[in-house]
Design a protein that fits this description.
The chain has about 210 residues and is an alpha+beta fold. It has one domain: Gcn5-related N-acetyltransferase (GNAT) (Aminopeptidase). It is built from 5 helices and 9 strands. A 5-stranded mixed beta sheet has the order 3-4-5-6-7, with helices on both faces. A two-stranded antiparallel ribbon has the order 1-9.
Length: about 210
């Protein structure tokens, strides 16, 4: 992203070139990017239904933080997301997020003015699912990040539970937000189905590009 008054001067290209050089020096072999194009349609996303109750599972939402006892398994879910989410022909390795890195990322987001909502499903003291989003001050748009359920607990509506709770917390605190943006691979029929049931509508397509480094 480049400030509007500085665009057209090669700043964005210089940043990309520098990032790719750093990636090569760190042994990366591919870089992935995307671009968004309008696909028509209108209307904000609305959570139209609640998920079923889950015996023995508590759904909890935190703002700009997470209890330390949850951090390790929350990081495990974040690191698994790129492996479990369908990504077409692009393969990813697991991420390497740690509780320390997550704390740093949340602190950096606060400095940027973002408010981050982290919703987790907890069973027997363990985080088994999560859904996250962030919103900027005075903005009418929020942006969904990841949603994932632990592999052995899928198919029990935990994904829709954490996603609904995450959206509900946002709307409770920021009733002026009228749009929530999210992205999904077309092949991820499970999350696409959840989003459709919650009232999300297709607004654009976001093709992915990869470059061999």
């Amino acid at each position: 992203m480049v400030e509007p008054e500085l665009r057209g001067r090669g700043v964005g290209g210089a940043l990309v070139d520098d990032l790719l050089d750093r990636a090569r020096r760190h042994g990366r072999v591919r870089a992935v990017s995307s671009a968004t194009a309008s696909a028509g349609g209108d209307g904000p996303a609305r959570a139209r239904r609640r998920a079923a109750h889950h015996q023995g599972v508590a759904v909890e939402t935190y703002v700009d933080r997470l209890p330390p006892s949850y951090e390790r398994l929350y990081c495990h879910l974040l690191n698994q997301l790129v492996l479990d989410a369908p990504t077409g022909a692009i393969d990813f390795e697991a991420e390497r997020l740690t509780p320390e890195i997550v704390t740093q990322k949340l602190a950096r987001s606060r400095r940027m003015g973002r408010t981050t909502y982290v919703t987790v499903a907890v069973r027997d003291g363990e985080v088994v699912a999560h859904s996250d989003l962030f919103v900027l001050p005075s903005s009418k748009q929020a942006h969904k990040m990841g949603t994932l359920v632990r592999r052995d607990l899928r198919g029990h509506r935990l994904g829709i539970s954490v996603k609904v709770a995450n959206l509900a917390a946002l709307l409770r605190d920021r009733p002026g937000v009228t749009e929530v943006h999210t992205q999904n691979a077309e092949t991820n029929r499970w999350m696409v189905d959840i989003n459709v049931r919650l009232g999300f509508e297709t607004r654009g397509v976001c093709p992915a590009f990869q470059a061999v480094l």
